[in-house]
Specification:
The chain is an alpha/beta fold. It has one domain: Spore Coat Polysaccharide Biosynthesis Protein SpsA, Chain A (Alpha-Beta Complex). The protein has six helices and ten strands; from the N terminus they run βββαββαβαβββααβα. The strands form two sheets. Strands 1, 4, 5, 6, 7, 8, 9 and 10 form an eight-stranded mixed beta sheet that branches. A two-stranded antiparallel sheet has the order 2-3. β2 and β3 form a beta hairpin. The N and C termini lie far apart (39 Å). The model has no long low-confidence stretch (mean pLDDT 92).
Length: 198
């Protein structure tokens, strides 16, 4: 039986201060980081939304805009928004990705969906680094509510309280598909990576 595609929520609420602000709209090889993330998501699901801190962070979009119901706790607030969105859309699973991950694999959803089975979380691991901002989660709002109400804010630590299956991704020391861009140097490196000759 074919599993219905998960909801995909793009976390786009970070201030991006180390990049000079406005991270989602920063250009990268002719497209904004956000547009690149949307293209990655649209290639893998028909159910996509954007998670932000406040509604005026991004220009108008055809995609649903999810504002933090729990502000000030970092990316796990996007997971909270994502769980609520996925449940409302009748999706049992959620893929949460960052707007600053322009190299995510095109087979990410297919690979994680095949792995998750009866588990709560399927999370890529590359070069011994877990990737919670590219993990597939089974929607479980009560478990997340309990974790946050107890003061939890770490995506990885929440995942570690669940039935987590790590998925070893092939090592790619020079071309990490899960690289996230946190500053101007990383953005410049990504520009070179995207524009270098094949």
């Amino acid at each position: 039986m074919t599993m219905i595609a998960p909801a995909i929520v793009i976390a786009a609420g970070g201030a991006g201060r180390r990049m000079g602000g406005g991270k989602p709209l920063r250009p990268l090889a002719g497209h904004s980081l956000l547009d690149r993330a949307i293209a990655i998501a649209q290639a893998q699901s028909d159910c996509i939304a954007l998670a932000v801190r406040k509604p005026d962070q991004l220009p108008a979009s055809d995609l649903p805009l999810l504002c933090d119901a729990r502000p000030g706790i970092g990316p796990i607030s996007a997971l909270d928004s994502g769980f609520r969105f996925a449940r409302a859309q009748g999706r049992q699973h959620l893929l949460l990705i960052g707007c600053d991950q322009p190299f995510l694999p095109g087979d990410l959803v297919a690979t994680l969906t095949a792995a998750i089975a009866g588990h709560d979380v399927a999370m890529p691991v590359i070069n011994e680094h877990y990737q919670p901002l590219a993990a597939l989660w089974r929607v479980d709002q009560p478990a997340l509510d309990a974790y946050v109400q107890a003061g939890g804010t770490s995506l990885y630590r929440f995942a570690s309280t669940r039935d987590l299956i790590p998925l070893q991704w092939p090592n790619a020391p020079d071309d990490d598909p899960f690289a996230n861009l946190n500053d101007r140097d990383a953005l410049a490196d990504a520009e070179r990576r995207l524009t270098r000759p094949a």
